[in-house]
Design a protein that fits this description.
The chain is about 35% helix and about 10% strand. It is α/β, with parallel strands linked by helices. The protein has one domain: NADP-dependent oxidoreductase domain (TIM Barrel, Alpha-Beta Barrel), CATH 3.20.20.100. The strands form two sheets. An eight-stranded parallel sheet has the order 3-4-5-6-7-8-9-10. Strands 1-2 form a two-stranded antiparallel sheet. The longest helix has 16 residues. It is globular, with a radius of gyration of 19 Å. Bound molecules: NADP nicotinamide-adenine-dinucleotide phosphate. NADP nicotinamide-adenine-dinucleotide phosphate binds next to helix 9. The site of NADP nicotinamide-adenine-dinucleotide phosphate has 29 residues, from helix 9.
Length: about 350
């Protein structure tokens, strides 16, 4: 039988930074994104995961809705059979919006574990905090008739089902994604098992300073999605006025000074600031450069300060496909005025 062989140019595991979660688990300081969007099919993503494991990635950021967990799981299962210790891996998956009912949530989590061939998940997230669904490939202005604003009691019913999965050892820890301070405050108040991570959009032009600090203050590790500004995101997530992170002068000037690609500046900034970035790529060369970005050639304190100046409050994943009938704008999803919009008189207490 084949044994798991690191690539000749693999990054030494000892050099890759780790974050200690409140659970005591040590999470790699960078993960590989697996959202192939509309352009990378499941086989291509799975092949990148195979290469990534061999070069030293251990955190793979998965989700049922990415439509590739069975293919990614083939690769993970193969690596485990070849002798890669399960304890070295950090496998995260996410509950999709149409599976929030407790029974469906438990079944969805078990399916992800089975598809990914990993026996248990290191982290399970509620992908979005409401059960709003959109048809694959739908247009940006589509509204599903069952969509509704966040309802805290509904969320907690889902969360309690997930807490039982932790009790059973199927999931090591729970996390949230796409939440706001008002929603996270309610979840922290009522959760028996507190979220250990918050996966949130973060890149130089969208630093989310307040939510980032709120997470740190509450012992929640921020994970930064779209760390490179997701240049190949689906068309429905592109809007007039969106900025390109890698074209920002602050990013480019630092890239020139270090003689590196602007993508690597985004990742160094992210890791040095304290989030765990999860860049996606289909190219071996880029995957390796992204991993190495964390282990060599740090940004200076001055450069970290200059990166603060790239902030433009430019949210890319606005989530408009999750809006409900009657909602005004995508801002309604993000509680920008500090309150959670209600539904049929429902109050988020
Ligand atoms: N929780 C959520 O709701 C949520 C939402 C969105 C995303 N995510 C997660 O976050 C991950 C990352 O976000 P994302 O995929 O949208 O965007 P991203 O990581 O910001 O950008 C990925 C793009 O950057 C390019 N790239 C990667 N490394 C590069 C390098 N070194 N130099 C130049 N270009 C490079 C890739 O192209 P090449 O293939 O050509 O390298 C790809 O097109 C996703 O895959 C997913 O796991 C989570």
């Amino acid at each position: 039988m084949k044994t798991f062989q690191p690539a000749p140019d693999a990054v030494d595991q000892a050099l890759i930074p780790r974050k200690t979660l409140y659970t005591g688990a040590k999470m790699p300081g960078i993960g590989l994104g697996t959202f192939g969007s509309d352009h990378a099919d499941a086989a291509l993503v799975a092949n990148t995961v195979r290469e990534a494991l061999r070069m030293g990635y251990r955190y793979i950021d998965c989700a049922a809705c990415y439509g590739n967990e069975p293919e990614v799981g083939e690769v993970l299962g193969e690596a485990l059979k070849e002798g890669l210790p399960r304890s070295e891996l950090f496998i995260l998956s996410k509950l999709w919006n149409d599976k929030h009912e407790p029974e469906a949530a438990v079944a969805a989590c078990k399916k992800s574990i089975e598809d990914l061939q990993v026996g248990y998940l290191d982290m399970y997230l509620v992908h979005w905090p409401f059960p709003n669904y959109h048809e694959p490939g739908c247009s940006g202005d589509a509204r599903h008739p069952n969509s509704r604003p966040y309802i805290h009691e509904e969320f907690m019913t889902t969360w309690r089902a997930l807490e039982e999965l932790v009790d059973q050892g199927l999931v090591k820890a729970l996390g949230v994604s796409n939440v706001t301070i008002p929603k996270l405050s309610l979840i922290l108040r009522d959760a028996r098992i507190k979220p250990a991570v918050n996966e949130m959009e973060m890149h130089p032009t969208f630093q989310q300073g307040r939510l980032f600090q709120f997470c740190l203050d509450h012992g929640i590790q921020p994970i930064g999605y779209c760390p490179l500004g997701s240049p190949a995101r689906p068309d429905r997530d592109k809007a007039e006025g969106d900025l390109v992170d890698m074209d920002q002068e602050a990013v480019q000037a630092i890239a020139r000074a270090h003689g590196i690609h602007p993508a690597l500046v985004c990742l160094k900034w992210a890791a040095q600031r304290g989030q765990v970035p999860i860049p996606f790529t289909t190219k071996r060369r880029n995957a390796l450069a992204n991993l190495r970005a964390l282990t060599e050639d740090k940004l200076t304190a001055l450069e970290m300060e200059q990166m603060k100046g790239a902030e433009r409050n430019c949210r890319l994943i606005k989530g408009q496909v999750f809006l409900w009938e009657g909602a005004d704008t995508w801002q309604d999803l993000w509680d920008v005025d500090g309150t959670i919009p209600g539904w049929h008189g429902y109050e988020n207490k």
